[in-house]
Design brief:
- The protein is an alpha/beta fold and 413 residues long.
- It folds into two domains: 218 residues, Rossmann fold; 189 residues, 3-Layer(aba) Sandwich (Rossmann fold), CATH 3.40.50.
- The chain is built from 17 helices and 14 strands.
- An eight-stranded mixed sheet has the order 3-4-2-1-5-6-7-8, with helices on both faces.
- β9, α10 and β10 form a beta-alpha-beta unit.
- α2 packs across α17.
- The longest helix has 20 residues.
- The radius of gyration is 22 Å and the shape is globular.
Length: 413
């Protein structure tokens, strides 16, 4: 069987062959590719304007990659005519090329696999951020056209537009797949005429074999994203004073770039153009917790593994998630986890058995959950062990790859 994938990133083998930057995300794609290679004939397409004016094919280890400079319907119609796949799988609904390929291929033999759902993300994007940071004036919008910043109303408009495009795509599809009960419920609403299939993801290989070694000497709370409001860093900052009163030497490590700073001359302009950064800095200073927050810079697989193994607790404080792979990787390691009880998260971990879950807007509950694990290392380790056993099933490579092959066969019949 020949299957054409569309993915939102140029995967590492193609990027390396074409001299393009390696992708930051998409580890679940590498995992599934490794399992299906040799069992399914795969052709993998992505859109990347950096490739130049013409589509570029790359063949490696029995897989052909196509990197397209544009992702229009006509571009995909040409690729489909050339490759003649039996099936198409579109990984993710959050980018324009997904709609274009569905229009070119038609719904009958196309599987749409959700990665995140833009509609709920748009609804919750600015949860908990004061209104004074969420708008912008004419001068800010003019500067943003010249040098794009981080205006939150512009980001909200982009999420809203993506949500409308996603809703149109899902309404017209015949086959959809997700991972959690929340995914299934959302897709019953968004794609009521489509057949739903459940298929878990395969995570990055290092997290299956490595283990969390236990509590470090000094307490560390780790989260993998905090650069936009949906990920809830502002709520973690609000929860910190209570935690720091008991553990004054605690550090919060945030994966990713630190707040942008170009020196004293440009600092006021940056604060003006990046209101969420300004809010985080103001909030941390007002609450007296700024000294406890550190940024790691961007992390590859090895860097993420090191940070998780060096931390006391993994925290996921997002306003909405469908099935966060960061939580899955922390659970695979056997880390004690605190996670917002939102979206598909309770479908991944049972409260007080495999993680501590809390209402996403309740910062006092977040403080209490962190303190409960820091105060009781034996209970924290017990949660981590149970989390690992759950995650080894959820993210089992053989089970999940076989499930996807079965889905392909069902659609092809």
């Amino acid at each position: 069987m020949k299957v054409l994938w569309l993915v939102s990133v140029t995967m590492t083998p193609a990027a390396r062959a074409l001299g393009l930057p390696a992708p930051v995300g998409g580890g679940w794609l590498d995992g599934m590719l490794g399992r299906l290679r040799g069992r399914v004939e795969l052709v993998i397409a992505s859109v990347n304007a950096a490739v130049g004016p013409q589509p570029k094919p790359v063949e490696t280890d029995g897989v052909r990659f196509w990197v397209l400079p544009r992702g229009e319907q006509a571009d995909f119609a040409e690729l489909l005519a050339r490759e003649q796949p039996d099936l198409v799988q579109i990984w993710g609904t959050e980018y324009p090329a997904a709609s274009a390929l569905l229009a070119a291929a038609g719904p009958r033999r196309t599987l749409v696999t959700i990665q995140g759902l833009m509609g709920p993300c748009a609804e919750h994007l600015l949860d908990g951020v004061p209104a004074e940071y969420c708008g912008s004036g004419p001068a800010q919008r003019l500067v943003d056209k010249l040098v794009p910043g981080g205006l939150l109303d512009k980001k909200q408009a982009w999420f809203d537009a993506q949500a409308r495009r996603e809703a149109a795509l899902l309404a017209g599809t015949a086959h959809v797949s997700g991972r959690t009960p929340w995914d299934k419920a959302q897709l019953a609403r968004l794609a009521p005429h489509a057949a739903y299939y459940s298929c878990g993801e395969i995570l990055r290989p290092a997290f299956y074999t490595a283990r969390w070694p236990g509590m470090p000497e000094k307490p560390v709370v780790f989260l993998t994203q905090g650069n936009y409001p949906l990920k809830g860093l502002h709520r973690l900052i609000q929860a910190l004073p209570a935690v720091l009163r008991r553990y004054p030497d605690l550090t919060v490590r945030v994966a990713g770039w630190p707040p942008l700073d170009k020196g004293p001359l440009l600092r006021p302009v940056i604060r003006w153009m990046f209101p969420y950064q300004r809010y985080l800095e103001t909030l941390a200073r007002q609450l007296g917790v700024a000294h406890a927050i550190r940024y790691t810079g961007p992390l590859d697989e090895a860097g993420m593994l090191h940070q998780m193994q060096s931390a006391s607790v993994f925290v996921l404080c997002s306003s909405i998630e469908n099935s966060p792979n960061s939580l899955g990787e922390a659970m695979l390691l056997g880390m004690p986890c605190v996670a917002a009880d939102t979206g598909g998260v309770p479908g991944m971990a049972a409260h007080e058995q495999e993680a501590l879950l809390y209402p996403p807007a309740d910062t006092e509950a977040l403080s209490a959950a962190l303190l409960r694990l820091l105060d009781d290392p034996a209970y924290a380790a017990q949660l981590g062990r149970a989390a690992r056993q759950r995650a080894l099933v959820t993210h089992d490579p053989q089970r999940n790859s076989r499930a996807l092959e079965t889905i392909y066969q069902t659609i092809a019949e």
